[in-house]
Amino acid sequence: MYPRARLDALTDGLFAVAMTLLVLDLRLPDDFQPHDASELIQGLIALTPKFLPYALSFGVLGLRWLSGIQVRSPDENLGSEYVHWWLLYLLFTTCFPFVTIVVGRFPNLAPAIWLYAGNTLILSAIGLRLLALIPDVEPGKQRDHQFLLAVLIVSSGLAIGWSFIGPRHALWPYVMGFSVVVIANRLRERRLKRAS
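The structure assignment produced for this chain is given below.
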């Protein structure tokens, strides 16, 4: 048995570092020397293709972290199978800065999309396995978590499929997926307000 508090501390630290490292590739070139405000604005606008992967990755990691703290078991200790799966989950979480840099630099190449979407797909599949291993989870929270993971899996599959047609726009299924999650959360909140 492993104490949950230690695993939570490691998880929070890794998510914080991974989410912070995402921004490192969002920078102006070292040789960029604007002569006026207009050139600086043009240089910042040129970063837009790198901003979408950054924002998507931050959103994916943020939602995964939030889901992890919402879906809880009352147990203070965790079994070794759960901990081993969680370490694998953290391995793919720490890969997010790398896959984000690759897709940010090469958004028009299908292998960059495959790498990004594949990492997200594996992370989500491991999340489903972890969910199955958590004892005594509230059914409503478990259902919400499964929905989020399903949206990420579908978005990843669509991104991979879209990359064969037009890799430059293959990350848009994630934007659509986030929209679905936001709308579903708002509808759930309205339902809860009406019920109370």
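Interim note for the steering committee: The chain has a mean pLDDT of 88. Strands lie at 2-3, 77-78.
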